[in-house]
Design brief:
mainly alpha; two-stranded antiparallel ribbon; 5 helices; 2 strands; elongated
């Protein structure tokens, strides 16, 4: 696995030396880096709390296990084109799941704002947001549903068609 020498990775791809298992490793790490990048613990718009570390742990774990689960479902069929399928099928799956979860996120936001949950005043008198257990629950369920749905669709694509009988 290459982290710095991109040219070597490019050469391995050119020579068809990158296996589906190697690609899985890149996908898992990409998912972990994404989970870290979008985690509110690294956002300046939020007050960081221990809940942010818990959220990071949950989202990174779901990304690792979810990606591996998708890989296993793909491998259970024809085992081909994991990364291509993951990325191409993953985009509409993510959009669909996010849109379906949008009403829950809006309802949660309304409840949090109505009752002052998830906000506090800092030492400068500014209102700041922080991660709540509701955020953890919704985000965890959203990610889990997304990976489960993606794995189901990848398994459907990877399903090996039965051999047709002669004659």
């Amino acid at each position: 696995m290459y982290f710095w020498r991109v040219d070597r990775l490019v050469e391995d791809f050119r020579n068809d030396q990158v296996t589906e298992r190697e690609k899985l490793k890149y996908m898992i790490l990409y998912g972990v880096f994404y989970a870290v990048a979008v985690n509110s613990a690294f956002s300046t718009a939020f007050e960081s709390t221990y809940m942010d570390a818990v959220e990071l742990l949950i989202t990174a774990s779901i990304a690792i296990f979810g990606t591996y689960y998708c890989y296993a479902k793909n491998r259970g069929g024809d085992g081909r084109d994991f990364v291509t399928r993951f990325m191409c099928i993953g985009l509409p799956v993510t959009v669909k799941v996010a849109i379906l979860f949008l009403p829950l996120f809006v309802a949660s936001l309304i409840v949090e704002k109505a009752y002052g949950i998830g906000t506090q005043t800092n030492e400068f008198g500014q209102s700041v947001s922080y991660t709540t257990w509701q955020d953890l629950l919704l985000n965890g369920v959203l990610y889990a549903v997304m990976y489960l749905y993606l794995a189901k669709k990848m398994a459907a694509v990877a399903k090996v068609a039965p051999a047709s009988e002669p004659g």
